[in-house]
Amino acid sequence: MCGIIARIGHGNAAEPLLSGLENLEYRGYDSAGIAVQNGSGVKVHKCSGEVSRLKSKLDSQPHGNMGIGHTRWSTHGPPTDENAHPHTDTAGDVAVVHNGVIDNYEELKTSLRAEGHEFESDTDTEVIPHLIDEYRAETGDTERAVRRAVDVLEGSYAIAAIVDGEEAVYAARKGSPLVLGLDDDEWYLASDVPAFLERTEDVIYLEDGDLVVLDPDAYRITDLDGNPVERAVDTVDWDPEDAGKGEYDHYMRKEIHTQPTALANTIEGRIEDGDVAFEDLPAGSFEDVECVQFVACGTSYHAAMYGGQLVREAGIRTEVLRASEYESTSGPVDENTLAVAVTQSGETADTLDAVRTAADRGARTLAVTNVVGSTAAREADDAVYIRAGPEVGVAATKTYSSQAVTLAMLSQRIAGDVPTATAADDRAAMLEALADLPQQVETVLETSEAEPLAADTIDSESFFFIGNGPAHSVALEGALKFKEITYEHAEGFAAGELKHGPLALVTGKTPVFAVATGDADGKTKTNAIEAKSRGAPIVAVGPDDHPLVDIADAHLSVPDTHPVWTGLLANVQLQLLSYHAATQLDRPIDKPRNLAKSVTVE
């Protein structure tokens, strides 16, 4: 989940390396560092803490036309100066940055120590520069040394390395993302496109087993045996301004407020003649499907629940499975199974493993992702893009909304194809109402009372979120957002489960946020009344005319619309509630402790 960047070209590398690390901090911010090669040695500058601390410790900007950088999310060893990347060999001639986990690093470290190598950190990464150094001594060739080094690594990695006296960057990937950025005067490597988006929009998404050698004027991609590999150049259609905060104090606030645009992009061109039309999935694409399995983690799992509910209502056998548990919890899989991998980044390690397992068992696979060229998009049989644009805040907001809408539309595409499926009676009305959703989200943003409500409830002991049917996933997502950025205890429940244990925790200091959509809300109201009788403040989140409002102590209002979309409007209110509560508690909203945006290690 770390962020890595490399740059080589004409002119100084330090400034684009540092700005690239700032753009990658959503991937980790435990420590940061850069290494620059300027013809007089490899100069490493690193420290624990955020990139801003690294910049403040630099007396002057390091000079050199090539370098590598890293912002860390700790896996092996605490966030200390010693554990910060880049790491070097004993002599300091080879510097490496790494994203991933090296499973056999202890065995390798023992072997290298026996050869006289000295280690200074607790990280798994430090074995890599020592391996390269060892094999350089044996072969006299750095590229061959890098090939041999990655060949003995077990686990996942995206690495970039520079060597004293050589005008080249060496990089390789297996199981962790790495993208090559192409500009007229310079080349970039990074974990994600936002690292260099303001400098170039032309990219190559590298694949597992690729090894790249960059010099100031050219790049070469080969496999691990040295055979040349051709990779397509893609153009990223994200606006560089989309990756900045603009007028907002936080990325999360910006991304909440840009949801109307994101949703409009998600929907555009996908409703034709009252039916769902995906560009690469014509009518009949799913006619052989007998079972749909959604696999996802975290916020994407909640979006998968949203879509899974609608597929299930169409009479199609449906499972919504946590990707990390897929191998042991999935039902039977065969050629009539559709495995839908929901992953914002397209690089989530557990989700990739789950969809690979499904494919090995014979399932057809489909990725629902935000990133063109991501591993999930490349490996799945088909891909549908949510079109949300870049999201930098660690706590997902606009990508959840765009995922849920995409999956809702996908559910109708599947239901329309499967011969035994039962189309919803109000399907036409549901799809017609979808066109109004972006403007209705705008209304919520303009009229929300979440900020004063956050102030009224912020001294509570716990926060409960409940909902039934389509609102259940919204309750879970609301609780997840709240705990992620406020650090307060928050839990989400299916409404009917409140009395089966959690009610014991309800007091006058436990507000209950009851999400109502106008569909299957009876249990939500009943359980809200029971919690209220125990002294809990009740907050209704739903339309003004919903019966829950009459028994609630407070109300977060959403516009009237079709029940399928009401939950997504309620979700926007809960995003704002979390944001304002975290602001009032002075939390680091875009960089919550212990978390990173993209979970690329298991």
Ordered list of secondary-structure elements with their pairings:
Blueprint: E1 3-9, H1 14-23, E2 31-37, E3 42-48, H2 51-57, E4 66-72, E5 87-88, E6 94-102, H3 105-114, H4 127-139, H5 142-152, E7 155-163, E8 169-174, E9 179-182, E10 186-190, E11 202-205, E12 211-215, E13 218-222, E14 234-235, H6 251-257, H7 259-267, E15 271-272, E16 275-276, E17 291-296, H8 298-313, E18 317-322, H9 326-329, E19 337-343, H10 349-360, E20 364-369, H11 375-379, E21 382-385, H12 398-417, H13 427-434, H14 437-447, H15 450-457, E22 463-467, H16 470-486, E23 490-494, E24 512-515, H17 522-533, E25 538-543, H18 547-551, E26 554-558, H19 563-584
Parallel strand pairs: 17-18, 17-19, 19-20, 20-21, 22-23, 22-24, 24-25, 25-26
Antiparallel strand pairs: 1-4, 1-10, 2-3, 2-4, 5-6, 6-7, 7-8, 8-12, 9-10, 9-11, 11-14, 12-13, 15-16
